[in-house]
Amino acid sequence: MSTYLGMPAFPEAAAVSTRDTRLRGNLRHATHTIRAKRAAAVAEMADWQQLRAAGAAAKDDTLRHLDTYLEQLETAVTTAGGTVHWAADAEEANRIVAGLVRATGETEVVKVKSMATQEIGLNEALEAEGIRAYETDLAELIVQLGDDLPSHILVPAIHRNRGEIRDIFTGEMAAWGRPAPEGLSDRPAELAEAARLHLREKFLRAKVGISGANFMVAETGTLVVLESEGNGRMCLTLPETLISVVGIEKVVPTWRDLEVFMQLLPRSSTAERMNPYTTMWTGTTDGDGPRDFHLVLLDNGRTDTLADQVGRQALRCIRCSACLNVCPVYERAGGHAYGSPYPGPIGAILTPQLRGTASALDASLPYASSLCGACYEVCPVAIDIPEVLVHLRQRVVEGGTYTVRGTRTVIRPAKGHAAERAAMRAARWTFQRPRALGAVQRLATRTRRIQPRRLPVGPGKAWGLTRDLPAVPEKSFREWWQERGKGAGE
Amino acid sequence: MSRELILGRIRAANAGARAAGPVRRDYLRAHADRTPDESVGLLAENLADYRALVHRTDAAGVAGVVARLLAERGSRTVLVPDGLPAEWLAATGVQQLEDRAESTARELDAVGSVVTGCALAIAETGTIVLDGGTAQGRRRITLIPDHHICVIRVPEQVVSSVPEALERLDAARPLTWISGPSATSDIELDRVEGVHGPRTLDVVLVGE
Amino acid sequence: MRVALFVTCVNDTLYPRTGQAVVTLLERLGVGVDFPLAQSCCGQPQFNTGYRRETVPLARRYAEVFEEYEYIVTPSGSCAAMVRDNHPKLGAKGAAARTYELTEFLTDVLEVTDVGAYYPHTVTYHPTCHGLRMLKLGDRPRRLLQAVQGLELRELEGAEECCGFGGTFAVKNPDVSAAMGADKARHIEDTGASAVCTVDNSCLMHIGGTLSRRDSGVRPVHLAEILASTEGDVW
């Protein structure tokens, strides 16, 4: 099974992916398709900015009183017949889920697409326990059959086009169950039909379902899953046992808050007025749906993120993926370069907070942005992603005291930034002394004729691979200004 | 215990945090003032936009429309949830099956069609909401059969907007929100209708 | 009226013509211009790369240097945004609200859109990200361009997409930056314009460097230089 372990830093991964013309074409087509649709779906709503502000405020309230809301949620779920478990990290969550599945005596489970279970590597952990997890979302199925990794929050197989999907189905379905139909074409409707046939058998015999949730309502104990295909409904209602693994930040205080999020999320993610199916359930219901319901509340770095007063806004995220779809960096680098189930702008601020900034990859993520701000503009819960990116860059190059796995920890400035740090210091020194600045400028202008337009090393080399350097002028502006003053007789 | 550990971490993280501002609910309750008829019209339009098949009739016409839809579909069996008005199926000869708690998913897979009512419908989004109440049955009966006929009494079951819908729904009930037949955007982010849920959704709007 | 020009370190060192254009333009419009020689850099490169501690003295210095001015005008969208949005966070609020990007100053303070300019070329306009999304310049630059005599404005496809400069992003992520730059350059070439203009020379350095390497022949030009140009004094 593919994993994110040992992946290179973002720039190295992107150096490869930006040259993959098929990947670039697939991503360009998909992201441009959805951009225009999202804009139209949002434009229908005269009160979008008010909804966005209310969504952000409701999430901020959630985070500020998260302990209270989680306890309230636990009580409500338990009262309604569910069982609540708490997992401090991925390992504990996986152990809890594996134990619950083993207790049923089953060796296979059907899964609804869930970011939280991707994050904790649940499928791999279950496999190690002899339990096979079947992904049932079409895109997750494509990823699983292709022994691949997801590259988008909403559409994990966005990096694949229809032809590649057809080849994966034809080649791999037989090893996992019902083979692809003979002569399968690459028409999306036929591909969807092939997935329907392949998964039908698994749904009908499934005894255990595993899901995440988009929202959990503290007041009522209700969990909410939005989806399109019906695989979610299958997994949430047919099995006898349902296990939902949900990040602690997914709680919202009141039932009424859903009126905000049920308007914000579909338009931001699939650009629909409403997604085809939403399931809302509270505990268990006699005679309808699972008899056993387990909710596993997951921390896994979320409380560390909460402890960062600037970075905590990342926990407002409702996983719509609008920021990915508008991001020019994501569009060119692709999701895999981010080395985590959370790619794109939100991944660049979420992953280094959930996992820390110790690895070269995680330390490179806050820099995987030109700070163009398109992500902030479309975010339905107004996460100021550029602000958090800059904040995390400070964490990387300046270090400081941050919470890591619940403990206040002094983080040293990252290695590998020494030359840059020296340059920034020198620049600051010069900028504080206009005479020195003038001297540097004079040196540059006097030597302009011997300066190359490409440089052989360092940042100059990186610049010069595709760009000429500007010609240095004969004199700086301040020289011109001073001479002009003399000429005017001042 | 991880419960205490996590709650403790949250409290520590929030110890010096700024107070959260109030949630201002100055967004719209509905996006237009609509007469009941206008809401029904918008519902029909939005349902159709997401490829539901919409049929309009009156109380006397329901049985005829349902019978025709079942016949056109060629279904030999139709599932009937508890409390479904008998007159809705008065004109069809298709074999009627009760929704029994012990019927398995596999048995449901062999059924041709299902007819239900609903709890309410949302005009602005083209959404039907089922809450397992009268004439709606268990969640699985509107999921496994490939053809769902949903009868909505208009205008009384139609609300304008999502906020109006949530006000009227009971969180304690299992809720299913349906906006058109199942679909996917997973191939090149383009929408294709028809995956695991019913691929045909007929909606019968029954006026007074 | 007298204003202070904050020319920015990039323009001071590499693009003096842009500063000269601002002086020419403002004086033509009857505005006296001061250039406090103690000015240097707003600290944007340091701040956006994560060197907050190196930024604080620069932000404070900016506030001191421009303390006495009611209007501080700068021909850079990103530097104006840095001062307005980030200096207050660094404890240097003083001059933030009095800092105007050039097109804001023209349209909002002087309330002019026709500045009497003449520029007989086809031009396409790239709205730079910080001008577009942080300052929310909207159609101000376009209104100014549309009023220029002799200028034919060409629509740019994907105009609102970042050019790929992003400060140190351009060298930390050279491949993605170059891929974005190549797409921007292609769209610019497709307009058939002879010049591409922006309100920010740093983005223009990247766009122009890319165009130059592609031998595309499209000239990068700062908006101020177009507005400074007149029939009697063609820039």
Give an account of the 3D structure:
Chain B: It comes from Streptomyces smaragdinus. Chain B: This is Lactate utilization protein C. The complex is a heterotrimer of chains A (490), B (208) and C (235). Chain A has a domain at 421-487. With 490 residues, chain A is an alpha/beta fold. Chain A contains 23 helices and 12 strands. The model of chain A has no long low-confidence stretch (mean pLDDT 94). Chain B is of the alpha/beta class and 208 residues long. Chain C has 235 residues and is an alpha/beta fold. Helices cover 47% and strands 12% of the residues of chain C. Chain C contains 12 helices and 8 strands. In chain C, strand 7, helix 11 and strand 8 form a beta-alpha-beta unit. At the A-B interface, helix 2, helix 3, helix 4, helix 8 and helix 10 of A face helix 1, helix 4, helix 5, strand 9 and strand 10 of B.
Share in β-strands of chain B: 25-35%
Helix content of chain B: 10-25%
H/E element order of chain B: HHEHEEHEEEEEHEEEE
Please give the share of residues in helix of chain A: 40-55%
Morphology of chain B: globular
Q: What is the highest CATH level, the class of chain B?
A: Alpha Beta
Strand content of chain A: 5-15%
CATH homologous superfamily designation of chain B? NagB/RpiA/CoA transferase-like
CATH topology-level fold name of chain B: Rossmann fold
Q: Quick check: average pLDDT of chain B?
A: 95
Count of the domains of chain B? 1
What's the overall geometry of chain A?
Answer: globular
SS element count, helices of chain B? 5
